[in-house]
Amino acid sequence: MATGGTSSSSEEGFLSRMALNDNKAGMEGLNRDKINKIIMESSKGSRFYENELKKEQQVNQRIERMMLQKAHITEQQLSKAQAQVEKMTSDLERGRDLSRVIVHVDMDAFYAAVETRDCPDLMDKPMAVGSMSMLSTSNYHARKFGVRAAMPGFIAKKLCPNLVIVPTNFDKYRAVSAEVREVFADYDPHFLPMSLDEAYLDISDHLEQRRGWPETDLVYLSPSLSLVEEHGDLQETVEVEGLSPVLFENSPSSSPCLQDAAGGEVEVFGTCAEEAVREMRFRIEQKTSLTASAGIAPNMMLAKVCSDKNKPNGQYKLSSNRQAVIDFIQDLPVRKVSGIGKVTEKMLGALGITSCSHLGQEMALLALLFSETSWHHFLHISMGLGSTHIERDGERKSMSTERTFGEMSALKEQFSLCRELCQDLAQDLQKEALKGKTVTLKLKNVNFEVKTRAWTLPCAVATTEELFAVAKDLLKTEIDNVSPQPLRLRLMGVRVSSFASADDKKPLQKSIVGFLHKKQTNSSSTSQISHKPVKEHLPKPPGLTQPSACPSLVQQRQGQEGHAWVPSRGGVEVGRTGEDQQSFLQRAHAQSLRLQAEREDPPEKGDWNDSLTCPVCFREVNTTELTVFNRHIDQCLSGVTMGQNNHTDTELERGPSSTTGLLLYETSTANIPLSAVGLNPVCLNTCPNGGVSIHRGTDPNTLKGSSQSDPHVRDCLLSTGGPRPMTTPKPESRDHRGPALTCPVCQETQDTNDLTLFNLHVDLCLNQEVLHELGGLAPVDRTTHTAPPAAHKGLCFRDVLFTE
DNA sequence: CTGACTTTGTCCG
DNA sequence: CTGGCGGACAAAGTCAG
């Protein structure tokens, strides 16, 4: 493994990553070598290229490991695997379903076609949609030069100097897409859109009905007048000729095509699947002046491959009998199958597998070399199996926003951008009324190296302030990790996942018991060490799954990774141990929340603001009646102490009206002594919803009463579920060391060993710092800020999608 | 060992 | 000069129990 003898194959490796990907339609028979030479010349030496090279070598090492593994496989293992594969094959064969008729429809060069339709001058020119930095799609003329989606415009220009690059017009594509989808819905009301320009349909039911239709229902008229009217709604300038500029010279119309009296076309369609799909494509073209291609097959996997077969403006039907499917699959290159990309293709290629028939022949080997999910997937492909019923995607699992820009190194800018991203994300979250518990920061440095750092909170969050409170800490940790050098970023992103709504709808009620049991388990199992200083058990600060908060371990990481992300020296502030960072971060969260909340936002009017978060079980209680809420906490507490819970459905029902955090503070502290619950400021601050208001105005001395050794304190921290305790506990504890705490913000030694007091100091200190950091920044103005100011040199990309 | 969680990588359009 | 965005999922590592 340590041989790293990839240099011999690095040249070839380079090609496989960087070279033209010509397996798609419209790229046949062009001068690959010449094109690749130009791509190389424009790429060589760039940071992007260097990074691609690095990734390529990682793939090569993966392949080497795989080959090594292969060499150690015994005949016995192989025959055992063979038996397993055969068993599975026959099971799958028994379940093969050829009864459905699945269609994959794909608009031809969608964005480019829309732009050409609206500007016929472009028709006979090579053109692409996108920017100098990135192209979304290209027309077929441009593809002859090797210009294709996912290629930067400046390289495309070198391949094809006359290339016209049209900026993306997303709203327009969305509008056209909506028209197309109206047609889809007539054939399958449950059709599955994959993007603006493609969809899967199950037309089995439609065909059933269609068989009984009278012939008059199968005739479509397209008088030019009606076409004009339709488009008149869409845009101001309309070509009066009616039918579109022709995108593709060869539009084979195999159905009868007549001229009616009004000069429109008349088409008659039959009742079989092919006729139905031809009719659908005809109607799409009538409606939008754009052409589509389609594949008809017994499952989604095959339909997708088929739709590519006669592209553009064509269709292909694979008949629904087993032998036809087997024959079709035999010579199919594995790369054509959706889900097998560059890397998998290369790995399989190393084993001599390029076609699906190879896949079938080598299944036993694949079962030994790949994970279960992978080889199961391969087996399905080799048998020509795929999904036979299309389903709309369930609830979304994450939501994110990210932005690329010119090099950014200034802290102030980085925090400002981070905040902006959080704000954008908060807006998007609000649109779908979502809240998530996990916040992930994504960074890409100028060398194209990507890093993600996540932190999971006990409560779902959604507002700008909440997101920023977390994201900013994650960012700060990364900055601290490389300090005194700056982070030289080219991309930043924020993602939210672990949505509360998804959990809420599911088996939540039954899980409350489990939830509390879990807490109980935590408490009891860790109670044996509860006499130790709490800080040893604090979760890791964000972004430190690798134990890099410990200086010695940072060194170790440097040795292992050795790239630009790791600081050349230490990078850990004096006195900023994992423990310090933790308290710092805990405080920072609450601090930001408080700051932001106080500075700008009155409480938002979102749905979820009508609920309160229980400080014991961390669940939202959908009431704003404090008496109800307190009763919940009472029951929750007795549940905790008695090892059971008394939650009922009725308690969780949504209550009306609104309340303030301050009221929560007053009543909850009045009725429940914090010490009785074991609540502590850290606990409360960890919870963005409960923490802010409860903490506000709290007497430190009261809170101090919550003993640090109380298991609940630790559980509250652990219940963040995110950063886990440090791998290597700090050997010496400050609590036994006398007054020697150093503030991670001001770097001054504090004359106390009381954590609560110390944290309060850090709070104040951070307050100053955050205000200083952000105070100078103008309030984020979305309209002006999307065009980045001075130092954001690069372009911002938004709403960019590929279409092929 | 298993489950929960984080990080990275692959793939898609 | 200029090499994207957003989503899903899987692998692999780590830790706690």
TrEMBL record:
Keyword set, alphabetical order: Coiled coil, DNA damage, DNA repair, DNA replication, DNA synthesis, DNA-binding, DNA-directed DNA polymerase, Magnesium, Metal-binding, Mutator protein, Nucleotidyltransferase, Nucleus, Repeat, Schiff base, Transferase, Zinc, Zinc-finger
Ranges of biased composition (kind: Basic and acidic residues): 596-607
Listed Polar residues bias regions: 521-530, 545-559
Enzyme class: transferase
The enzyme's E.C. designation: 2.7.7.7
Coiled coil start-end: 46-98
Cofactor: Mg(2+); Mn(2+)
UniProt domain UmuC: residue ranges: 102-341
Catalytically driven reaction(s): DNA(n) + a 2'-deoxyribonucleoside 5'-triphosphate = DNA(n+1) + diphosphate
Function in brief: DNA polymerase specifically involved in DNA repair. Plays an important role in translesion synthesis, where the normal high-fidelity DNA polymerases cannot proceed and DNA synthesis stalls. Depending on the context, it inserts the correct base, but causes frequent base transitions, transversions and frameshifts. Lacks 3'-5' proofreading exonuclease activity. Forms a Schiff base with 5'-deoxyribose phosphate at abasic sites, but does not have lyase activity.
Protein name as annotated: DNA polymerase kappa
Native species: Salmo trutta (Brown trout)
Species classification: Eukaryota, Metazoa, Chordata, Craniata, Vertebrata
